[in-house]
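Reminder to self: tokens first, then the designed residues, so the page reads top to bottom the way the pipeline ran.
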């Protein structure tokens, strides 16, 4: 997850911590679209969506992250 250590990424992680899930999920959906085979982007998007109440979409993000991570082994 080294490429995600940017100030913008950290700001949106703070959005998750401050419970502004709409802003966080908007940003992390862009991250997942730019890096579709990156496990961490899909994983954190899943959390943002889960916290915002979009459970079905969050589940799909978690499953995608697991598939990518399992393929890395």
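Designed residues (73 positions):
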């Amino acid at each position: 997850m080294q490429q995600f250590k940017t100030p913008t990424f950290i700001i949106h992680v703070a959005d998750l911590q401050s419970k502004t899930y709409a802003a966080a999920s908007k940003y992390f959906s862009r991250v997942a679209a730019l890096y579709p085979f990156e496990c961490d982007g899909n994983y954190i998007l899943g959390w943002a969506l889960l916290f915002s109440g979009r459970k079905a979409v969050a589940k799909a993000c978690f499953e995608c992250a697991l598939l990518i991570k399992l393929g890395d082994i």
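The CA atoms of residues 27 and 33 lie 10 Å apart.
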